[in-house]
């Protein structure tokens, strides 16, 4: 049973580091899937930070209940990483489009986020990337749960 959800724990640290690494490696796998003219900028760094946050907040707060729940927490963290990564990259692209005045109003820009996310999501339908996210989520969940139970 976890002592508290709000205090830093070794399990949260392991979860954050693990999902951060998964975010970085996934970013490297995504690069060849995108069109050649894509400007990635700080793509890897954004996904690394999102992985750290998802590991700490999503996975780390669900540790201490056993290995099955740890696996579920790791998979939930990987899914959250994909969601927030898609949202962050889509929002960034929408801002660039808005600054180039491609939208007629704010509602069109907001719906543009979801259209862009759907476009980007199609590039993520790659077996290697999906395998990395699933296996990475399971491994992160197991290691973080082990660390949480060992040093509780």
UniProtKB/TrEMBL annotation:
The keyword 4Fe-4S does not apply. It comes from the Bacteria. The chain crosses the membrane at residues 12-30, 42-59, 71-91, 129-147. Keywords: Membrane, Transmembrane, Transmembrane helix. InterPro entries: TrgA. This is TrgA family protein.
């Amino acid at each position: 049973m976890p002592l508290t959800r709000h205090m830093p724990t070794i399990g949260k640290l392991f979860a954050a580091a693990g999902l951060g690494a998964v975010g970085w490696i996934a970013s490297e796998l995504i690069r060849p899937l995108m069109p050649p003219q894509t400007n990635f900028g700080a793509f890897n760094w954004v996904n690394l930070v999102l992985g750290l946050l998802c590991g700490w907040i999503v996975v780390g707060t669900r540790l201490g209940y056993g290995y099955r729940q740890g696996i579920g927490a790791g998979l939930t963290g990987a899914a959250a990483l994909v969601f927030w990564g898609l949202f962050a990259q889509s929002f960034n692209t929408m801002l660039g489009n808005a600054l180039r005045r491609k939208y007629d109003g704010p509602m069109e820009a907001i719906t543009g986020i979801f259209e862009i996310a759907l476009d980007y999501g199609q590039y993520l339908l790659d077996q290697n990337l999906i395998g990395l996210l699933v296996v990475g989520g399971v491994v992160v969940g197991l290691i973080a749960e082990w660390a949480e139970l060992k040093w509780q």
